[in-house]
Amino acid sequence: ISFVLSKTPENVFQNPLLGFGYGLLLLVSMIGIFISVAILFLEGTNMAAAYGTKCISNICTACSDAVTAQIFDFMAWILKLLLLKSTLSIQLLCTVSLQMGKFIERKQIDEARAQL
After folding, report:
1. What average pLDDT score do residues 36-60 get?
2. CA 93 to chain centre
3. I need a labelling partner for 83 at 20 to 30 A (CA). Which of 18, 24, 34, 89 fits?
């Protein structure tokens, strides 16, 4: 986001309508990029689980396909859970940084330190 904003001409933000349109375009494109990467990760974990089950069943003929599938599905579920956890952690960091910024703007340095 910082890179895109650094390449944006200054006169874009001097016109309110043009600035709003550019900001809206930037918002929609960033949301699209982040959602597509998340979907790619989720589908990738599903495909990896299916491929892992297939590979193990080819290697180990004594292994049950149902048990192997459950193990790989559980591992895919754990990876999806880690993606959700990291998303919520980033949201919490963003909220705390905004609170710290408000404290610093009001010259309340001790309260900002308490947020750390």
Report:
1. 84
2. 13
3. 24
